[in-house]
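Chapter summary example.
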Amino acid sequence: MKGAYDENGIPGDPDGPAPGGGGGAGEGGAGGGDRPGPRIPLPRVSVEDGGRELPDAVPDGAVALEHQTLTSLLGAWALAACSAEEAAAVEEHLGECEACADEALRLREAVGLLQRPETLDLDPALRTRVLDGCLERRPPRIPVPEWATPYDAETARLDALLQDIGDAEWHAPVRLRWFEADAAASRRTTVAGVIAHLLTVDGLVAAALGLSDPLGDIAAPAPAPAGRTEAYWRASHYPPTRAVRAPWREQTHGIVRTVSFTGDAGRMPVSYGDFELPLHDAMLDRAFECWVHAEDIADAVDYPYEPPSARHLNRMIDLAARLLPGVLATRRRAGPAAPGARPHLVTAGEPGRSLRLEIEGSGGGEWLIPLDSPGAVGSAEHEVAHVALDGVEFCRLAAGHVPPADAAAGQVGDRDAIRDVLFAAASLSRM
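The structure predicted for these 431 residues follows.
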């Protein structure tokens, strides 16, 4: 038979000549069948020349796998966990096997249900991160003052939100909320109406910097924010539309650009009608209002919106904490403070009774709020109460969006002092 070997392990063919060739002569030239043939095997016969059936061709990049193996790979293929060669083999098989194709489709649909849908909305902080990266490589010739960066960041985030909404959403209803006379107050408007409100109130800062006032020739009853807003709304022949975005955006850019050239002008007074703030605090106040109203707009149009960065949030909380003693004194003169909580007067600069305000989470820290008079100094030795709040929750309390009774996560100490401080925080809000 083919492929037989003799006793010396040399292949031979019983039907043909001896492996050594001609007449079977052995070494030395003498004939004789007893001598073995050459010890070096002859080349093997090629499969193409042997008459055997050739195997099926395998496409480039694929591996030859059996049906059972390909079926077991369907789950890995649906999860995109196969190698490139295995994926090619499975996909070729799916074009030939209807049962496996149906199973692969079912598995791929199941994988789609396991994956969380990804939002197509850009991260609101993306612009800030890109600008920060650019400025690290090439610092600006005239940088924005540190105390103006929260306003720059929050107006940019709101502008990105406005860029994404459609024409119809500018007329979506929005309810402005604040706290007045120890009760919740509100005013109904639209998304465009909110931007008009920000335009007119930011105009107080613009006017203090010598920029044009958005009210123009409109006679406002008083420079207070609410009066300016109502005057602007009344003067509009039609409800504000998305056209209000352009003057608001131009004004925000003008304010940031101007304060960048003012140098050390952060203490310049900005009048709000019945009170004043230095320019650096007024810019923080406007950044806070921009974030609060951006959240109002985002809720109205179902848009994801994050709180400010921890650094900016901390500054907003610090501003509110510094304003609380003055608001407490105003409330005390007006009578809302509880009778048992009326403290004795303390000379300015001296320590007095204090409440420890502990802010947890983003932008957190601790502040000692003097309770006796605006000029008093907070003192840990004279601490009579301790209140713990989340940072964003405290800001929403100061914006009038959270009732004082529902705000504190933890309260220890003088109940009247705690109540006065929480209501004073809510009284910081306005339209």
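To summarize the output: Strands lie at 173-180, 183-190, 269-271, 276-278, 351-360, 365-370, 377-390, 410-413.
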